[in-house]
Amino acid sequence: MYLSGRTATDGDSDVVVGVGDIKEQTRQVIRNLLSALEPLGGTIDDIVRVRVFITPPFTKEKFGAIHDARAEFFNKDHYPASTLVIVHALARPDAMIEIDADAVISKK
User: With b meaning 16 or more CB within 10 Å and e meaning fewer, what string describes 13-29?
Assistant: First the structure.
């Protein structure tokens, strides 16, 4: 399953949450990815690759916050392959991060 870029929008209002807080935005993006996977029987462990797009500036603190938020969801023994790309801007002005993902959901 290919999940196109998700940003940190609230599912009900389509408003970016965690404005100015990369860690909270990362959490919301992952929740949004899960909300697309779960109705199809998928879980966080089915995600095999992510592409993470962030806006400048890139700092060690920002990278650490993203990693810490991901660690709250992904099993430490099963992190997906990951690419980080710094982009000039995202489609939503308040968005600091966007993630797209590839998942393999096995038939049960």
Answer: eeebbbeeebbbbbbbb
* pLDDT bracket for residue 24 (50, 70, 90): very high
Give yes or no for residue 108 having a pLDDT over 70. Answer: no
In CATH terms, the fold of domain 2-103 is: 60s Ribosomal Protein L30; Chain: A; (3.30.1330)
Residue spans of the domains in the chain: they are 2-103
Distance CA 26, CA 69 (A): 6
Paired with 15 in beta bridges are none
Q: What are the φ and ψ backbone dihedral angles of 107, each rounded to 5 degrees?
A: -75, 135
